[in-house]
Design brief:
The protein is an alpha/beta fold. It has 26 helices and 22 strands. It binds phosphoenolpyruvate and magnesium ion (MG).
Length: 754
């Protein structure tokens, strides 16, 4: 086997010169293939570029028939080149023609060649094309040669990614800049058009080829050493205060930092003439390609760990300041991240954020809750999102249909822009209704209140014209914090909430944790059925210290103002009575210590456990008010997990069984003179809310975006006519049927906006 005359270092130097020449992109590419062929002593060197229509096209060749350039094309999974593109792994064969995937292209004159080596052109784990060399003999390519060709491939990847080759194919663009549409899960409703801002920006390595390899090796070693010491320090700190779980994670990272294979490959890449940054990226790119294709979640997590580690080394090399800080956002920013905590999202300037795209995170994740509170459209479960786009790429987040469009084509962009205009017009119409009281055409007044959980939500009170806060979920403060909020912090938040809402009433719910609402700093309980487990008021009654601290903070924060407190997940009247006794005790304590108590302190129970339906008269007598938590009530009534997408929408809250339950609460509440509000999602959906008005409900609490649509519905109905329709329909319904079609037809016939 002939040895390469100059070795990879010389080749890289030549390539650097070629890159600097003021020639056309095609001429540069033609020059590059000649240089590579000469350096690795091959008769053939060819570059295939993946186009945006998923076709691999021959862009340049030395050795094959030049007429075939821009003519030879194959599907992305066709032939040996397609195989390399698909697997994103190098392929070396001493006799290519014997390989089952070999596909013969007569126009290239390939029949004369036997040995074949191809490597993928990768960037951030994505295949952009394939680089091949071929020989007439049946030669065996060495590991070093494969490695050297991969290093060389980086230069070509950068050329493609920079957009330089865009337009060289006569009828398509390159895949590197292609439009991508991916479907995910909606975390927060809305549509956002803007430009990609990577939450953890990928560092763009500008200088690939080293001037001085010895110096680059020292830089790499120093960076690795610094990362190792930082991890050691973390492990040591973790030993003192971390959980067993976090220690385990850190130990794994430490193990990787000493991984011989990983270190050797980076050192080899520097040895072959790359800068330290380029060497890290070169190895990281292979790793990412494997990560994208890895289906085993455990192995994928480990590759993620390795990727994180490479990021750390990279940051050491380029300096932390080059990474960019939250807050320095361009206008119309759409954040793209693998995952994100709620606090990190709050660090960004919300006025400039138009959307959020995540690889991981469900609708109940804390970051989703914060995105909703901030009104930022968000979509998650977009696999490999951070690698699919570059900073500054145009992107659309469709938080209605659950899609993300990266580098959208003009038609897609125009249709979304139109959708945004329509939505804005509708919002304007709703805004015009802001100060119009929500009264039905037959004079029934409906109270529309807000659901909130963070201080930022309170801004929506003025914006929407809501009458007050019908449900303030106090657990959010606990969920977004790094540690248990102190009594003083709780009191400060409640005070701020009461101040921000001025004269408008606020109903504050005591901590509803457990189930799916886990606090990161509380020991996690292993429960078979967490939704049915130790949660909400059950924790409050069993560990009264937590509840007492919260109640005391609330009472102190009220400072003479009226206060409405409600308890979540009440299953028996006795639980409510016991909770009330704790409030009474706290009041007495504060009174003794000279605090001003609320002028009016009302205590309510949430109706979300079906057992309360069978004690409805008693609870309506005991409580000052009731609030229907329909999200949980439906979950328990129909035995469907509200977070399980497979079953969550299986039963209709407008079916007879549910409607009977709702009617019972409305009627018995009214009979006992006990005000009832509906604060689950159902109250925010115009058609469903219309049904509830027909059943007798007069107060609803909902997300800010729902106030306008629900008010528009209220203004156009006659409550008595809806009630009549419901009476008739329920009388003749068979069990299991839903009233939805009849209600929808009714709304349509009368022009009710739903
Ligand atoms: C409900 O269950 O309907 C409710 C309002 O409470 P949460 O969604 O917070 O459980
Ligand atoms: Mg609930």
């Amino acid at each position: 086997m002939p040895a390469a005359p100059g070795g990879p270092r010389l080749l890289l130097r030549r390539l650097r010169e070629a890159m600097a020449e003021p020639v056309s992109p095609q001429a540069r590419l033609d020059r590059i293939v000649v240089l590579i062929a000469a350096n690795v002593v091959a008769e053939v060197c060819s570059v295939y570029v993946l186009r945006d229509d998923n076709v691999l096209e021959l862009f340049a060749t030395e050795g094959l028939n030049r007429e075939a350039v821009h003519l030879t094309r194959m599907r992305a999974d066709e032939g040996l080149v397609g195989l390399i593109a698909k697997t994103a792994e190098p392929l070396a064969l001493s006799d290519a023609q014997q390989h089952p995937a070999f596909s013969y292209r007569p126009e290239t004159g390939e029949e004369a060649f036997h040995a074949f080596l191809g490597v993928p052109l990768l960037r951030a784990g994505n295949t952009l094309g394939v680089l091949t060399v071929q020989n007439k003999t049946y030669r065996v390519y060495s590991e070093e040669e494969i490695e050297a060709l991969q290093t060389t491939a980086m230069v070509l990847s950068e050329m493609i990614a920079s957009g330089e080759l865009q337009g060289l194919a006569p009828d398509a663009g390159t895949a590197a800049r292609r439009a991508i549409s991916v479907r995910g899960t909606v975390l927060a409703e809305g549509i956002g058009l803007g430009y990609v801002v990577l939450h953890e920006p990928r560092i763009v390595v500008k200088t690939l080829i080293a001037e001085n390899s010895e110096r680059e090796m020292t830089r790499l070693e120093t960076a690795i050493e610094n990362v190792r010491s930082a991890i050691d320090a973390l492990v040591e700190r973790g030993d003192k205060m971390g959980t067993a779980e976090s220690r385990e994670v850190l130990e794994t990272v430490r193990m990787f930092a000493h991984d011989k294979g990983w270190l050797r490959r980076m050192r080899e890449a520097v040895g072959s003439g790359l800068t330290a940054e380029a060497a890290v990226e070169r190895v990281q790119s292979d790793n990412r390609a494997r990560m994208v294709r890895q289906s085993d979640p455990y192995l994928r997590d480990r590759l993620h760990d390795l990727d994180d580690l490479a990021n750390r080394v990279m940051r050491e090399l380029v300096g932390h300041e080059a990474v960019g800080l939250p807050g320095m956002l361009p206008e119309n920013a759409i954040l793209v991240a693998r995952s994100m905590g709620p606090a990190a999202l709050l660090d960004y300037e919300p006025g400039r954020l138009r959307g959020l795209v995540l690889e991981e995170g469900g609708p109940t994740s804390h970051v989703a809750i914060v995105a909703r509170a901030l009104g930022i459209p968000a979509v998650s479960e977009i696999e490999n999102a951070a690698a699919l786009c570059d900073s500054g790429d145009a992107i659309i987040v469709d938080g209605v249909g659950g899609e993300v469009h990266v580098r959208p084509g003009p038609e897609v962009e125009a249709s979304y822009a139109e959708m945004v205009r329509l939505r804005a017009r509708r919002q304007e119409q709703y805004r015009a209704l802001r100060d119009v009281p929500a009264i039905t055409r037959d004079g029934v007044r409906i109270g529309l209140h807000l659901n909130a959980g963070l201080l930022v939500d309170l801004g929506h009170l003025v914006e929407t014209g809501a009458e007050g806060v019908g449900l303030f979920r106090t657990e959010l403060q606990f969920m977004v914090a790094q540690r248990m909020p102190s009594a003083a912090e709780q009191q400060a938040l409640y005070r701020a909430v009461l101040t921000a809402s001025g004269d408008k009433p606020v109903t504050i719910r005591t901590l509803d944790i457990g189930g799916d609402k886990i606090l990161p700093y509380m020991p996690k309980l292993e429960e078979e059925n967490p939704a049915l487990g130790w949660r909400a008021i059950r924790i409050g009654l069993d560990r009264p210290a937590l509840l007492r601290v919260q109640l005391r903070a609330l009472l102190k924060a009220s400072d003479g103002h009226p206060l409405k407190i409600m308890f979540p997940m009440v299953a028996t009247v006795d639980e409510f009575v016991r909770a009330r006794a704790i409030v009474d005790r706290e009041k007495a304590h504060l009174r003794r210590h000279g605090y001003t108590l609320p002028v009016d302190c009302q205590l309510g129970a949430m109706v979300e456990v079906p057992s309360l339906l069978f004690q409805i008269d008693e609870i309506a007598r005991e409580a000052d008010f009731l609030s229907v938590g329909s999200n949980d009530l439906m979950q328990f009534l129909f035995a469907v997990d509200r977070e399980n997408r497979r079953v969550a929408d299986r039963f209709d809250p407008l079916s007879v069984a549910a409607m009977r339950a709702f009617r019972l609460i409305a009627e018995r509440g009214a009979a006992a003179n006990c005000p009832v509000t509906v604060c689950g999602e159902i109250g925010g959906r115009p058609l469903d809310a219309m049904a509830l008005v027909g059943l007798g409900f007069r107060n609803f609490s909902m997300s800010p975006a729902a106030i306008g649509p629900v008010k528009a519905m209220v203004l156009s109905i006659e409550a008595a006519a809806v009630a009549e329709l419901i009476d008739t329909e329920m009388a003749r319904m068979h069990d299991g049927d839903s009233l939805r079609p009849a209600l929808a037809a009714f709304a349509k016939a009368r022009g009710v906006p739903i």
